[in-house]
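FIELD: query
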Amino acid sequence: MDNLEKVERLREKADVTYDEAKRALEACNWDMLDAMIYLEALGKVKKTSDSGVYSSKAEEEKLYDVEKTIKEEERKNKEESFKNKFKKGFNKFIKVCKENSFIVKHEDKKIIDLPLGIALIIFLLGWHVLLIVMLISLFFEVRYEIEGKNDLKTVNSAMNKVADTADKLKKEFEDKAEEKVKNKAENVKDNESQTNSEDKEDKKEL
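FIELD: result
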């Protein structure tokens, strides 16, 4: 309900002039219930009988009706607003799914190129398995990206950070494994040298 409609509704319910209704709404930040109470406090609400006798009961009933009507309209407006926001968000989501693709790369070569919507459906159907597969694949130089019309740098940046972390962990593991093999080889070499030395000493004694 726009401001003009609020003015007309308040003018009818409170039985005041257009200007009085508008000023009351402006003073109450366009809240109809507050505006009605505001007019009550100023004594602007018209008499309820021709004899000029003020009926507080009738005014209370009128105020209750106004409050009930306003609350009902506010509830409907909130429901419509939620529906419109949901519809707008859903349409935007569908558009993003249509205009973008989910890319799987290995050593900078595309091996899978799927519409984002299909990729999301597949992931939702088997996320408990695919999530593990995706995490393991990061250790084999596999990268995931989203390409298309929309600016999805934040998502791609997050996926790249995960891939970089996997590469870092892989390198640390390989370095430790290489160091372990190297140490083992050195130990074997030292043992062989020691054995050869002992053999030579045994031959000298003989």
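FIELD: remark
Residues 47-55 have pLDDT under 50 and may be disordered.
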